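ARCHIVE CARD
SHELF: 3
SLOT: left
DATA:
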Amino acid sequence: MSDDVTDRDYCLVGTDRPPKADGPPYAACVQCQEPTEYPESYKGITLCPVCEWREAERTSCSG
């Protein structure tokens, strides 16, 4: 495996992520309603860091 290969090259589930916000207002998490790291203006599903981590654990590749 070469040094320029990342985890994203192997597991393609849910790889699209919204851009990080520079500051408030932040979008609310669609699961728990806590603030996320994403701008409020982003249209789409946003998750807070905790829910993002749990979703990643749930959907991780167990290869």
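SLOT: right
DATA:
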Amino acid sequence: MKTIHPKITEVLTGTFKVPAAEILPESTMDSLEMDSLAVAEFAVIIKETLGVDADSEKLYKDATLADISAYIDAAVGSAAAEATVPVSNTR
């Protein structure tokens, strides 16, 4: 089984009281009984803690947790890569 992004697991279990046993790669927000308000709140928490901005209705509502985790990892990786791009001072 693929590991779900730790922040996703932390938010779902801590904030939304989703049982850890239900947090599976193939789970969706619908299967976890997260309504649209909860999904929007989840998206805000992810943005505030990880800096990952996404349309909560498109990404979080229809995607599996594995999809969401991959998206977050890619977005965080892109941000880190951009922050470490060397800048040449030569003219």
